[in-house]
Amino acid sequence: MKTILSIVLMVFCGFTFAQTTMTGTVTDNTGRPIAGANVIIVGTSSGNMTDFDGTFTLTTDSTPPFTAQASSVGFSTEIIEVTSSSQKLDFILQEGSILDEVVISASRTRERIFESPVTVERFGLKEIKNTASADFYDGLENLKGVDVNTNSLTFKSVNTRGFATFANTRFMQLVDGMDNSTPALNFPIGNLVGMIETDVLSVELLPGASSALYGANAFNGILFMRSKNPFDHTGISAFYKQGITSQEAAGDNAYTDFGIRMAHKFSDKFAAKVNFGYLKGTDWAATSTVDKNQEGGTRENNTNYDGVNVYGDDFSVNIQSESD
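User: That's the sequence. What structure does it adopt?
Assistant: Structure tokens below.
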């Protein structure tokens, strides 16, 4: 019996000696602890999770050397090579992109884009950088089911349900949750008073009717534009675009688009940003003298003349003949 008991004790001590217990922390690149991070031994089922302070204790039957891995949602995976049982594991995770995009506009609650009950067209930072359009707002025309009426270089109207008009009163446009419609006109005027390209974080478009959630003005669809938070996106960024607009009547004219964004985080509770944009160009020149009344004559000798696109043609009077 003594011999058998000695053998059992030796085997138990052998198993106890083979276990390796390690401690460590998991933090982000700013030093803040990450709670709920997964820490595992690569190639085994041994693992644990961090507590609210970002610390963990990991026990494994493996003997060094081996590889430990830490991961968390929204952060990149970090790997550390363990060479001794007394080594402390301090993981520093870098912020990364979430694989499945999250939509915050479809139902006013955060949900995965594939679980959204309505069609959501998303225009993110990657698409904005890759668009061949003059600016990000023009790039919306490449989205499914979207028509953009270009009224001028600065005034564009988005249509999603076949109602092709520059005054789309049943289309709602929100910038950081604020209605972007002109108070007097009661319809959105494109990006004329919107954001510059360097301050855009994402653009989400709901082509269908959204009146149940956002009111009667969202009958033709709704456009959400989100700007960059100065707490998360600091520093100075700028862009400069140069080109020409060409027309047979007006000739070639210079096109210049410039913008700069400055943001600074003063503390965890206060941050500020400043945006400046400058755009100058020539759209087109009205040179047609065709009379829509088909009465002939010109603007100078016909008081009933109604030109197709001559400037100031709403009402015309021959001042010289009246004075005579």
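The longest strand covers residues 251-265.
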